[in-house]
Amino acid sequence: MxxxxxxxxxxxxxxxxPDELNxxxxxxxxxxxxxxxxxxxxxxxxxxxxxxxxxxGNDPDMRGPFPGGLSGEFxxxxx
Length: 79
Fold this sequence. Notes:
The chain is α+β, with helices and mostly antiparallel strands and about 80 residues long. It has helices at about 1-5, 50-55; strands at about 25-30, 35-40.
C-alpha cells in the first residue's frame, strides 16, 4: 500500500522473505533468547540530517525529489 500510494503505476510487489520488510534486524542469543543487538536496516543518511529531522518531529522518509506530488495533489502555498 505504501508503494502504491507513492507510485500508482505499480501493479504488484513480490516479497521473497517477509523479514525484508522490517526496518530492524534483531540478533537473538541462542541460549537465553534475549536480544543482543538491534541492527538498523534503513538506508544510510546521505546528508546527515535524519536525526535532526526526527528531533524536530519531521518524517525524514517523506523528503525527496517528489514531495507531495505523486498522487496528483499539489499544495499551493500563497506568497
